[in-house]
Amino acid sequence: MQLSPGKAVGDRVAAFNEIHVGIAELKIARQPDRLITLGLGSCIGVALHDPATMIGGLLHIMLPESSQFNNVNKPAKFADLGIPLLVSEIRRSGGKINNLRAKIAGGAQMFSGLNEKFVLNIGERNIYVTRKTLKSLGIKILAEEVGGRRGRTMILDTVTGQVLIRTVGTSMKVI
């Protein structure tokens, strides 16, 4: 993990680790660390944060549902398995499910001009199953930056619960 300069806190600067979350991975962190995932095209990033304990988690989903696959060896790859797993890991770390707030990003249609049947609308399906799974767990989505045709980077600040979104070709946005 790379130690990164933090933000000013009073007269001092707090340091935090920037923890990278790869494709089909999930990671948990405590304040003051940040979680970051790159390359959210049709994939979805799910950030969960417990403001009381300042514990957060970030999940990088590739596909909506695992039911069409016989051998699932990476549950974090799928919205239907990865989101409950992320919640479980946050609870194991001391977070409370009733405190969790969600922010999601991604689900872009990255391949314009291709036959929709060929593309299978992965981005749209990822958004739908992510929303449905979070709702079934009683977790409210506070903000989202989904759809479109551009890739995104997503950063969760475990201190504030803010999510920074960097979309290709645009400036940083806070959700």
Which key phrases capture this entry?
alpha+beta; 175 residues; 60s Ribosomal Protein L30, Chain: A; disordered N terminus; 3 helices; six-stranded mixed β-sheet
Architecture blueprint of SSEs:
Elements: E1 2-9, E2 12-20, E3 26-30, E4 34-40, E5 44-50, E6 55-61, H1 79-92, E7 101-106, H2 116-119, H3 122-136, E8 140-146, E9 152-157, E10 163-167, E11 172-174
Parallel strand pairs: 2-4, 7-8
Antiparallel strand pairs: 1-2, 3-6, 4-9, 5-6, 5-7, 9-10, 10-11
**Main sheet specs:** 6 strands, mixed
Principal-axes geometry comes out as globular
Percent of residues in β-strands: 35-45%
Top CATH class: Alpha Beta
Would you identify the regions where 5 or more consecutive residues have pLDDT less than 50? 1-12
In the sheet with the most strands, the strands line up as: 1-2-4-9-10-11
Please identify, by name, the CATH architecture: 2-Layer Sandwich
CATH topology: 60s Ribosomal Protein L30, Chain: A
Number of strands: 11
Total of domains: 1
How are helices and strands ordered from N to C?
Answer: EEEEEEHEHHEEEE
Total helical elements: 3
Name the average pLDDT: 89
What share of residues is helical?
10-25%
Q: Could you give the distance between the termini?
A: 25 Å
**Gyration radius over CA:** 16 Å
Supply the helix-strand structural class.
alpha+beta
